[in-house]
Specification:
Elements: H1 2-19, E1 51-58, H2 75-82, E2 85-91, E3 96-102, H3 106-114, E4 119-124, H4 168-172, E5 182-187, E6 205-206, H5 242-251, E7 268-273, H6 283-293, E8 319-322, H7 332-343, E9 347-351, E10 370-375, E11 391-396, E12 416-418, E13 427-429, H8 440-457, H9 463-473, H10 515-526, E14 534-535, E15 545-549, E16 561-570, E17 575-577, E18 585-590, E19 594-604, E20 609-618, H11 644-659
Parallel strand pairs: 5-7, 5-8, 6-7, 8-9, 9-10, 10-11
Antiparallel strand pairs: 1-3, 1-4, 2-3, 12-13, 14-15, 15-18, 16-19, 17-18, 19-20
């Protein structure tokens, strides 16, 4: 009896391990909302190391609020708790106040306060500055040094007159762009000597072959400057300096007290010369230039310090602007290269074309391209712009409607220009008389500049995400404001010319470009919350319940997580939720073997969401087995007591063995 008891007591530890009795984990301290203490983009440029300024919001029902629920002044209590010298600042609401601290930085104090159990969030008390318009003399309205007197109207916030203005000034409140972002301009080349471009250009490359070359250089070389595109075969009487105009709209040096502003402001421009005489170019030159611009043709030794060559682009662009095109459907060659570029995370912005309301040109009509139509200042389609379902968005293209022949063109797009007639002359700017900038060629770079600002905030944005942001943020087309009562809604393109008309979402894209709103969407995406899931087990057995925990999720920029949403995204027949699916935790009951994927979507207090998922591998439940028992009447079976018959038999065997044992002589 005692032997048997000792035996089972000895096995008890092993049985505990085998059965898996639950052990309580130590409780974790409430970490508060440390993400809320992260500095926002609008924080002061530098923090005073020993002078902290923080804004705090206390949790509803916090014990600290009991004494003065409407006048939170809790510096003393928090200072004692944290062993810090704190002083009360302004009361900012029933649960919000400003605090000052000594001996640490604002971000350090915010982090420590955010970790307190009665604090909902704590953020740095940052500084803001007035938003000043750039000091480029031709930017604002009312300047008289050059016409048009409206200046760069298309960069300002829209109003009842300039309905289609892009609100670039609003985008600049969020970002003025980064020099780490490069926009390639595939065009006639640029004038490197223009004072508003000289500091904003990379060296680039020339892909124009001698057949359409105008400068006698004999073919491709490392000189992307524009020699002028006029020759005796052109229908025009002067060089266009087209690439210089496009480059200025994207990236003219801004706030430098000279000339005009560029929508992309601080981004860099990479000139790629693919158009020669009369502003024309061969497809193979253009396609080669597109691949080179993105760095797809770079050899293994190419680096940022390399000299440009046909197989080395030291500064690959992630945005390409093509203010060019031709009639017809998208050919296989262009579709192949655009597909390749999109796969390499390169956004390709292309002008829809200027064929008086006909079908979108190629390569703007290729899948993956961001096609841009042109609209007047009033928001109607400008007469020359093409249109169709391939258009992604519309942007100002300049117009002179309602102006008598020889009079001032009121709403062109003012940009950088060379004033030479056929060969390079003095640097200057487009104006309202002899050099107005008009065309979808100049609508496209406004979109490309906006994309560059978006990528300045988040370089990982895919072309599809960029297009979605542009279209989601676009402003609706107006249904009034046309030149006269004869203006009608735009229709699908046909062989018939289609002049000014009221745009629709099937003809001119999703709406009018709103640079500020598009850039804000990109900015909000950088502040998206982090969704995190942990599971009580990632390999449950069928029939076992799994606790899913989303408490590791966090918000940023002073925000908090406002809601949780759990869902089964695959394997729904193998498991189901047994309770609420909108809490920080959820319980999943498994029923059969296989893989089950569960997603968690968290939404922050600003309405921005992010999702994540986790996959559980459910094992089959073990098959129950029946213990083997003795069939004799005397056996106890299994671990029972020894029967008397069995003992008697054993005794007889022992006696027989002793009888046969040899005796010692």
């Amino acid at each position: 009896m005692n032997l048997r008891l000792s035996f089972w007591l000895g096995l008890l530890p092993a049985l505990v391990l085998a059965v898996g009795l639950p052990w309580s984990a130590p409780a974790q301290a409430d970490s508060g909302h440390p993400a809320a203490a992260r500095l926002g983009r609008s924080a002061a440029p530098a923090e005073a190391a020993g002078d902290a300024r923080v804004i705090v919001q206390y949790k509803r029902g916090a014990a600290l609020l009991a004494a003065s629920p409407r006048q939170p002044q809790h510096a003393a209590a928090l200072g004692t708790r944290l062993a810090l010298t704190l002083s009360n600042g302004r009361v900012l609401g029933e649960r919000m106040q400003a605090l000052r601290g000594k001996g640490l930085s604002s971000s350090a104090l915010a982090a420590r306060l955010a970790a307190q159990p009665d604090v909902e969030w704590a953020v740095v008390d940052g500084r803001k500055s007035i938003t000043a318009a750039p000091n480029d003399p031709f930017f604002g309205a009312g300047q008289t040094a050059v016409t048009p007197v409206v200046g760069q109207w298309f960069l300002r916030a829209p109003d009842s007159t300039i309905v289609s203005a892009t609100n670039a000034v609003g985008a600049w409140d969020i970002t003025t762009g980064s020099a780490s972002i490069t926009v390639a301009v595939l065009d006639t080349g640029v004038r490197f000597d223009h004072p508003d471009l000289a500091s904003k250009l990379y060296a680039g490359y020339d892909f124009v072959r001698s057949a359409i070359e105008v400068d006698g250089s004999g073919g491709t070389d490392a000189d992307a400057s524009d020699p002028g595109d006029w020759n005796s075969s052109c229908s025009s009487t002067r060089s266009s300096w087209h690439g210089t105009q496009v480059a200025g709209l994207i990236g003219a040096a801004t706030d430098n007290g000279v000339g005009v502003a560029g929508l992309g402001r601080n981004v860099m421009v990479l000139p790629v010369r693919v158009l020669g005489a009369c502003g024309s170019g061969y497809d193979n030159d253009i396609i080669a230039g597109m691949r080179w611009a993105a760095g797809l043709s770079n050899d293994s030794s190419c680096s940022a310090s390399s000299t440009p060559s046909a197989t080395c682009n030291p500064h690959p662009a992630r945005v390409l602007n093509l203010s060019l095109g031709g009639s017809g459907s998208c050919g296989s060659a262009y579709q192949t290269v655009i597909t390749e570029l999109v796969a390499a995370n390169v956004a390709v912005v292309v002008a829809a074309g200027n064929d008086t309301g006909h079908a979108v040109n190629s390569p703007a009509n290729c899948t993956g391209a961001i096609a841009v139509a042109g609209i007047r200042h009033a928001g109607t389609k400008v007469g020359y712009s093409n249109l169709g379902p391939q258009v992604a968005i519309a942007a100002p293209a300049g117009n002179c409607i309602n102006v008598a022949e020889g009079s001032e063109c009121l709403y062109p797009l003012m940009t950088t220009l060379n004033l030479g007639s056929t060969t390079p002359g003095a640097s200057g700017y487009s104006d309202s008389f002899t050099h107005p900038s008009l065309g979808t060629s100049f609508a496209a770079p406004l979109v490309a500049g906006t994309v560059a600002l978006m990528r300045s905030l988040d370089a990982t944005l895919t072309p599809a995400q960029i297009k979605t942001h542009l279209q989601t943020s676009a402003r609706s087309f107006p249904a009034t404001g046309g030149t006269d009562g004869t203006v009608v809604a735009c229709r699908a393109p046909s062989a018939t010319d289609q002049l000014e008309c009221y745009c629709t979402t099937t003809t001119c894209g999703a709406g009018m470009l709103d640079a500020a709103a598009a850039v804000n969407l990109a900015y909000q995406a950088t502040l998206a919350p982090t969704a995190a899931v942990s599971a009580s087990t990632s390999a449950p057995t069928a029939g076992q319940s799994v606790t899913l925990d989303g408490s590791g999720s966090s918000a940023s920029g002073g925000r908090t997580i406002a809601s949780y949403a759990w869902a089964i995204t695959s394997g729904g027949s193998l498991a189901s939720f047994t309770g609420a699916t909108n809490g920080v935790t959820a319980t999943l009951a498994t029923s059969a073997a296989g893989s089950v994927t569960v997603s968690l979507t968290v939404t922050d207090s600003a309405g921005v969401s992010r999702s994540t998922s986790t996959t559980l591998t459910v094992a089959a439940a073990p098959v129950a087995t029946t213990p083997v028992t003795s069939t004799t009447s005397s056996g106890g079976g299994g671990g029972g007591a020894l029967g008397l018959g069995w003992l008697a038999g054993l005794g007889l065997v022992v006696i027989a063995l002793r009888a046969r044992r040899p005796r010692v002589g």
